Amino acid sequence: MGEFGIGQPVRRKEDVRLLTGGGQFTDDIDLEGQVYAAFVRSPHANAKIIAIDSSAARSMDGVIAVYTGQDLVDKGIGLLLNDASYTDRSGRPMSKPERQVMPVAQTRFVGEVLAMVVAETPSQARDAADAVEIDFDPSDAIASTAHALDPSAPKVWPQYDSNMVVHWEYGDQSDVDAKLAKSHKRVAVDLINNRLVVSPMEPRAAAAKWDAATQSLTVHTPSQGGRRLQMALAQQLLNLEPSKVRIISKDTGGGFGIRSKMYPETVMVSFAARELNRPVKWRGDRSETFVSDYHGRDQVNHAQMGFDAEGRITAMKLATLVNVGAYLSENGVRLPMEGGGRIIPCVYHVPDFYFSVKPVFTHTICTDTYRGAGRPEANYIMERLMDAGAKATGLSREEIRRRNFITQEQMPYKTHLGFTLDSGDFAGTLDMALKAADWAGFDTRRKEAATRGKHRGIGVASFIEGAGSRPTEGMRLSLDEKGDVTVFAGTYSHGQGHLTVYSQLVNEFLGVDFDKVKLVDGDTSLAPKVSVGTFGSRSSMVGGAGIKMAAEAIIAKGKKIAGHLLQTDAEKVVFANGAFQAGASSISLAEVAEAARDAKRIPEGMSPGLDETVTVELESENFPNGAHVCEVEVDAETGIVEIVSYVAVDDCGIVLNPFIVHGQVYGGVAQGVGQTLTENVVYDASGQLLTASYMDYGMPRAAHLSHIEALFNEVPAKTNPLGVKGAGEAGATGAPPAIVSAVVDALKPFGIDHIDMPLTPERVWRSIQNSKHGQAA
Amino acid sequence: MDIDVKMTVNGKAVTGKVEPRTLLVQFIREHLRLTGTHVGCDTTQCGCCVVHVDGVAMKSCTMLAVQAEGRSVTTIEGLAAADGTLHPMQEAFREHHGLQCGFCTPGMVMMGVDIARRLPNADEKTVRHQLEGNICRCTGYQGIVEAIMDASAKMAAKA
How far apart are CA A224 and CA A226, in angstroms? Predict the structure, then answer.
């Protein structure tokens, strides 16, 4: 409906509040009588805990309590659980070590929480935490993914044969080997998908309050939706009824996959609030988030692909090592299979596929979902293989892609591990990107750059994603007596602008003014019972479908009330332009909403009010895809890579608000640029985190990026009523292969085929120095 | 031993008793309860805490409260006009999608005002380099850079 409906670049309703200092992030919330927590963390990656002496800490000013792992055991606090279950082909189950909230006997990564101090002020808590003395017996550690399975590697869990969690396989290896052997051309790539910190800008925090009268707990914490935290805290950890636990996230300063995980600090703050019957608050320092927030990526991949004489793929073989860290996080072990594996072969038809995954334990913090969650890794592998295939077959990079794309005629197309791709115009999207980037005119620009002493390169990546996993979600629309709408969502906006987009949808479906729509989210006590949250680019699909479905329920009920008021059959009532009409008579939605509250003005037996809660249950995810083209200039003297242009063409299905979706693309690309050029988590051989602050870790700054041109090729999804596809993770998926392809293209004169991410000046410079063409071509 | 401090914050005289080690950002957030100024790191990198001290952008995490004695501090809460009219920089951030989650935003806006004051006609490359000390994880900086350039032009035209 006009300027505020679907597809309009509506400015955000969230912004004025956030631009004037009105945000309510967890650390901005004070609870009356609150006291403060500080944590004692392990300085060792692998050590026996001999003794913890907290007597000095306990005697310090303002200290209220000190807790260790033994206190949790004594109080019957539960374990942090993981529900993954994979087996190897002999039926042997994966290794599933127990994870205590705070370990009693052994610490397994630097930064692990070993004790908690609660004091009257934050500085008293910090000072006392520094006074807790722990006697350790340290041993050698293993942090390296590639070496985790070496026979000499220290074992993270000595009760198991090795650091391998499981050897999971798909496909027939001998069949694929035979096909590869018979192929006209074969290529192989070895790729490291670098480990990253997720680093939302708001550090992790929690503030918990225990109400003794009702024996109930309220926890304020950043999240991506609180229901899972609520259930885990109640049922697994604190032995409470779920109804006695309430999670509130007013504002959350970025998520990117690592919020809504059950971290020890959240449990401890909640536990202490109950023990002490006083509100307890904690805000993590940035250095704490570096060592203890879950990390992302961290794979080592060896992939092979065969091509026939026409350059068509014959078979693919992939061996993945993924570093899950010291424990099993909620999703880390699943990512190569459920996240990346299911989307392979990405946008290409691959007749035969063998896949071997070995998740490995190391003495590091766990990895888990990070923007893209397995799909960036999978697409990166495919795109590096396609570039290698282009070189081997002599086809251009764009032509080999065109020859292998899954076509619209082949859809629905089932991937090997069980996704069904419903829609996508991969060739058309690629063509749009090549045209927008003036791919054909690149040589002129390369020559011009050469006159300035710069090596210019261009790269392209086609990719696909799976968005909207677990496609079930609740949604409630409630109209007040004026007809204003409150949306009660199970999703949770933490930067995505749900208030704006949901208001657009309510405006579209009910004709209610954009400004007269409110959103209530981030509170488990107010959310619909079915509340899954916001992750995996799912909210436009499940939240959007929920609003449509709830609006339809409102209209259906409204028709009955309007028919009653207009003294006509409900079947004869039509809803259009925000009003119910029957013949010449008309009554507005607001009037019906007002009447609906009065039992005397509605049909007999009808419950009063216009207030509908629905549960969306879709059958499938959606599959956003795209083609990104990046152009770089490399200074061979310094190794510095400069991105000079970036074109992103994305098929996000129907775009609900291009202003907001562009923002998702830019932000995703920036994280992809970070992974590709600057970001890298480095542990040393003893398991010390060397990149533990923004001084050591290369967060992308504004100057690392250039202007991004973002375009859409809108192919409606068939898997959901709005035809939308997730937009959040495309950028982080498309950027790494596009940029690496561009840099390698720029370095063609040096005979360089590949450089592992991040392509820091040092790595690029070393590659040039070590290249067979030496100093310069 | 606590020390008395007094300064002007958003045009109002304020006083407080602080531990000597209290940072300006702690004074602003915890004593004055102005929570729009955020803390995003502990190493002076992220810029979420930028405020103006005597009209100049400062990272309030890297200054003691006592160092602001007698000075005039403006925080994000004091940037819009008294009647609620947004500052041109705030308006430009809204217009150009210069924020998503909103956590780095107060610091970005305060830094943007400072860039506009010092470099009214800065080109895109200059603005990008000027933002070296401000980290955003959501926006890819595109809307932020556009907003600062747009508001700078408008502020210069008005001046």
Answer: 7
Q: d(Cα A414, Cα A38) in Å, to the nearest integer?
A: 50
Residue A343: the pLDDT is 95
What's the domain range around B99? Answer: 88-158
Give SS3 for A35. Answer: strand
List the 87-126 stretch of A: residues with Cβ below 8 A of B: 123
Please name the residues between 116 and 175 in chain A that touch chain B, using a CB distance below 8 Å: 123
Closest Cβ–Cβ partner in B42, B86, B97 for A286: B42
My answer on whether A507 and A606 are in the same domain is yes
Residue B83 belongs to some domain of the structure: no
Q: How far A513 CA lies from chain B's nearest CA (Å)? A: 20
Number of domains chain A contains: 3
Per the listing, tokens 């799976």 go with: A466
Helix axis angle, A375-393 relative to A730-746, nearest 10°?
Answer: 30
In a domain, A673, yes or no: yes
Task: Note whether A451 contacts B: Cβ–Cβ < 8 A.
Answer: no
Write the CATH number for B55.
Answer: 3.10.20.30
Chain A CB contacts of B107 under 8 Å are none
CB B132 within 8 A of CB A701: yes
Q: Can you tell me the ipTM of this complex?
A: 0.98
CATH of the domain at A415: 3.30.365.10
- A13 part of contact set with chain B, CB < 8 Å: no
Q: What is the pLDDT of residues B99-136, one digit of tens each?
A: 999 999 999 999 999 999 999 999 999 999 999 999 99
Q: Which regions of chain A are under pLDDT 70?
A: 1, 773-777
Give residue A651's identity as a one-letter amino acid code: D
Please list every residue in chain B whose beta carbon sits closer than 8 Å to the beta carbon of residue A251: 101-103
**The pTM is what?**
0.97
